[in-house]
Specification:
Keywords: Membrane, Transmembrane, Transmembrane helix, Transport. By secondary structure, the chain is an all-alpha fold. The protein has helices at about 1-5, 10-30, 35-50, 55-75, 75-80, 85-110, 120-145, 150-165, 180-185, 190-205, 225-230, 230-235, 255-285. Helix 3 runs antiparallel to helix 10 (about 190-205), helix 6 runs antiparallel to helix 7 (about 120-145) and helix 10 packs antiparallel against helix 13 (about 255-285).
């Protein structure tokens, strides 16, 4: 599988070009974000753009996965050359070098152009999340493709699955505004919740905010109170920090979300094996 993928220059080149173009598009669309209140929202939209490399990654890999699976079904499986477990393992592992290359290129093309923190600890942590995000996308796409009867079915399933999890990750719709039915289970069973959460904490939590003059609220406090006394209750609540409104209440949420993302990666690859096992059983019954 490693040799086969290395020789498939169309697939590899398209994968690299996708990440470079998407990274440059994000970087130059949000060029050197400042530190105003409105710029906090722009950082949120940067993270939103970052996760949208997922549909492209998934759509690229699924036709190749299904084509190889069909060859395996027609040749290796029937002649019992090797098991479906070895086949799936080969498909998964052969993607790893290219995921790492794409993660590096993606990070370099957007991170410094949008003006995210130069601190090595935050930059390194952000790259680590981008790298993990590549595994999430690939594992999810391969899990869908493993059971899909053909590439057309997989392409039709992708928008339904991706649209649902993207809409409920807490970025497009804030946590408090997500429909109750989705908020208490899909939000927490959503890998993108933890990818976006860690990216937001690493790049926003503790950042200095310099309000523009147009963003200042000018008012007179009640008689006998200073502005600080009048706003004390507001500043101790959700208004104290922008990320509170996104259900990110402390700095430790960054590495917590990283750990949960790793769990989702492992579970997504387990789903690839599980879906392939179900399909193998179904094809045996059909025969």
């Amino acid at each position: 599988m490693n040799v086969s993928l290395f020789r498939n220059t169309d697939y590899v080149n398209n994968k690299i070009v996708l990440h470079v173009i998407q990274g440059l598009f994000t970087g130059f669309s949000f060029w050197m974000i400042g530190s105003s209140v409105n710029d906090l929202k722009l950082r949120l939209f940067v993270v939103w753009n970052i996760i949208f490399v997922a549909p492209g990654v998934i759509n690229q890999l699924q036709p190749l996965f299904i084509e190889r699976r069909n060859i395996y079904d027609a040749r290796e499986k029937k002649s019992r050359i090797y098991s479906w477990k070895a086949f799936v393992t080969g498909l998964i592992v052969s993607e790893f070098p290219y995921l790492s290359i794409c993660a590096v290129l993606y990070f370099l093309t957007f991170y410094y152009t949008v003006g995210f923190p130069d601190d090595s600890n935050k930059a390194g942590a952000t790259f680590f999340i981008i790298w993990l995000h590549e595994f999430i996308c690939t594992g999810l796409g391969q899990a869908i493709a493993a059971y899909a009867p053909n590439a057309t079915f997989a392409a039709l399933a992708n928008p339904l699955i991706l649209g649902t999890i993207v809409a409920c990750c807490g970025v497009l719709v804030p946590y408090s505004q997500i429909t109750v039915f989705w908020r208490y289970w899909l939000y927490y069973l959503n890998p993108f919740t933890y990818v976006t959460g860690s990216l937001l904490v690493f790049n926003i939590f503790g950042a200095s905010v310099d309000c523009k003059e147009s963003e200042l609220a000018i008012f007179d406090p009640p008689a006998g109170q200073t502005c600080g006394e009048y706003l004390a209750e507001y500043q101790s609540g959700a208004g104290a920090h922008y990320l509170y409104t996104l259900n990110l209440n402390d700095y430790y949420f960054d590495w917590r979300d990283v750990g949960i993302t790793v769990i989702f990666i492992l579970s997504s690859y387990c789903m690839v094996y599980l879906m392939m096992k179900f399909r193998t059983k179904a094809s045996k019954k059909a025969e």
